[in-house]
Amino acid sequence: MKLSDYDLRQIDEERINKLSETAVKNLSITLLNDLKEARERLNQNSKNSSIPPSSEAPWDKASKYEDEEQDNESSDDIEALDKAMHADKQALASDCCSDEIDTPSPSQESSDTATQPAPPQVPPRKPGKQPGAQGFGREQKITVHQHEHHYPTQCVLCDDVFNAEHTCAELSRSNSVAYTAFDTLTLEWGDLNQPGITVVNTRHTYYDRVCPCGHVTQATPLRQPPDSLLPNVELSQWRLIGSSLAALIVCLSFRMRLSRPRIREFLHDWLGITLSVGSINKAIHESGRAAMPLENELLEEVLKSELLHVDETPWKEKGDLLWLWVFVSSSVVAFWISSRTSELINNVLGGNAYKGWLMSDGYRVYRQFLKRLRCWAHLVRKARGLMESYNKESQAFGKETLDFLNSLIEAIKNARENPPDKPLSKFYKEQLLSYRHACEQMKSSAHKKTRELAVEMLNDWEVIFTVLDHPHLPLTNNEAERALRHWVILRRISYGTRTEQGSRIFAILASVILDVQVFIYCRGIDFK
After folding, report:
1. Cross-strand bridge partners of residue 374
2. What percent of the chain has pLDDT above 70?
3. What confidence score (pLDDT) does residue 167 get?
4. Cβ proximity of 2 and 222 under 8 Å
5. φ, ψ dihedrals at 66, nearest 5°
6. Mean pLDDT over residues 27-56, rounded?
7. How far apart (Å, rounded) are the C-alpha atoms in residues 379 and 390?
């Protein structure tokens, strides 16, 4: 919204009557846009937006069963209380009427104890700060190294542009008053001439200014509220952790594979910066939100690529089994976390919209693409595994497959250096027919691995040996597997992610790190 609460308090009928016709029209348009946005926010709920159900009012989300259960519990408590009061009255009356105090027998004690109501059960304590508990503010005081002053440049009411020729000192002496300020910690990176890292604390001071029309306009930090990209992450200039410090935190988390508490320990011990684990996690999420617009650019580059390497590896999201997908082209590397179905492939590659070569393994979701390549490294490993089996028939088929593939690999390497006058498939026509006949025989083998390899070769026959007609294409999916290797190690340390939001942030930051290097990219992030 353009008009803040501070602005609305200054607008009344008298002020509007003094405005010119043009200013009134501009103000009406601004008010109309703000009103529409306010209505949209007012109508949001957990069914039509990303607002969690826990934020709704109890009378909107509670079911009849829950209401009845609460009523039953309250009635049971009242009934137990009435019984207890009635028992106390009877005991008091009996004590008053008797002249002697009789010592109750053990049986009487047990019966009296049985009639007493059970103490009410206390609900389990929720994790985190409890309602009404005392909060704790930031205790570390860091010296302010430099100041930045922010003045309003235009009146919000009449759109009059303030005189830009006035210096900050002149503005502060005339009609500008500071109304708020905050500190931001940034890092100055060293170079070969002056190595090292310097921590800089900048104090940002914001001013308001009186316009000739009488309206007071405030300079406010830029802010991006949560949206559909990451519903629970807001970006704002008002923050303690600057962009360069956020870049270091992302580097420690993703490249150095440190946990949030270890990052906190490193910053405290080596840089003298004391941050909470929550602030560190928030900085990582804000960095992911700042990089999230790159997701569409990554999709465009993936679709434009002539050759694309695709692979996937298991990924845990709070115990749920998902898969980390990687798409590697000559210009970008993109990661996504999703289930192991064709849904992600269709969303990223647009079904049959992708017209380039697709290098993958033998997973069936890739079979919808006509220009597809198979990774020969998988086939070589499977053939070598058959050679090491204890079945003689499997050993013979594995050796035949391995020797045949190795001979073709050497021929493809030679063809890249000295292109032949006709496709390699013409030179190896008889060998291909002979090996296909062997696969036809082995597809009914009693040995499971042998049968699976033979069926796999027959199902993807054209795809596997397409490279013979296009020797310039790769033989392996090594590019995708190398891109996944670092994150597989991180997965073993961190055990994956905890939330869907954390998975999205991990995927986009992993893409950014491998594409443009986290230090270079995050220096340019100023959340504007």
Report:
1. 360
2. 80
3. 47
4. no
5. -65, -40
6. 72
7. 19
Token duo for residue 439: 């696969």
Residue 527 has pLDDT above 70, yes or no: no
Cβ partners under 8 Å of residue 274, min gap 6: 139, 140, 267, 268
**CA–CA gap between residue 168 and residue 252 (Å, rounded):** 39
- For the whole model, what pTM was predicted? 0.72
Q: Which of 440, 458, 454, 464 is nearest to 394 (CA)?
A: 454
C-alpha span between 173 and 8 (Å, rounded): 26
Cβ-Cβ contacts under 8 Å for 70 (sequence gap 6 or more): none
Element (H, E) at 189: strand 176-189
Q: How far apart are CA 298 and CA 516, in angstroms?
A: 12
**Helices 277-291 & 500-516, crossing angle to 10 degrees?**
60
Q: Where are the domains of the chain?
A: 376-468
Torsion of CA 34, 40, 41, 42, to 10 degrees: 110
Residues in the chain: 528
Q: What is the pLDDT of residues 206-239, one digit of tens each?
A: 999 888 888 889 899 998 888 887 888 999 999 9
Q: Residue for token digits 């969303």?
A: 347
Torsion of CA 460, 465, 466, 471, to 10 degrees: 150
pLDDT tens by residue, 260-278: 999 999 999 999 999 999 9
Query: Distance between CA 154 and CA 15 in Å, rounded?
Result: 18
Mean pLDDT of the chain: 82
Instruction: Say whether pLDDT at 69 is over 50.
Output: no
Contact 221, 484 (CB under 8 A): no
Q: Give the HSE-up count for residue 25: Cα atoms under 13 Å, Cβ half-sphere.
A: 3
- How confident is the model over 51-69, as a mean pLDDT? 51
Q: Confirm if 451 and 459 have CB atoms less than 8 A apart.
A: no
* Residue ranges of E strands in 33-166: 146-150
* Structure confidence at residue 190 as a pLDDT band (50, 70, 90): confident
Per-residue H/E/C for 268-336: HHHHCCCCCHHHHHHHHHHHHHHHCCHHHHHHHHHHHCCEEEEEEEEEEECCEEEEEEEEECCCCEEEE
Q: Is the Cα dihedral 17, 18, 24, 26 positive or negative?
A: negative
Sequence-distant (6+) residues with CB within 8 A of 149 are 168, 172, 205, 207
pLDDT at 186 over 70: yes
pLDDT digits (tens, 9 = 90+) for 308-342: 999 999 999 988 999 999 999 988 999 999 998 88
Q: Is 123 exposed, middle or buried (0-12, 13-18, 19+ CB in 10 A)?
A: exposed
- Judge contact between 394 and 450, C-beta under 8 A: yes
d(CA 350, CA 440): 35
Q: Tokens 């204890």, residue?
A: 390
With tokens 């959340």, the residue in question is 527
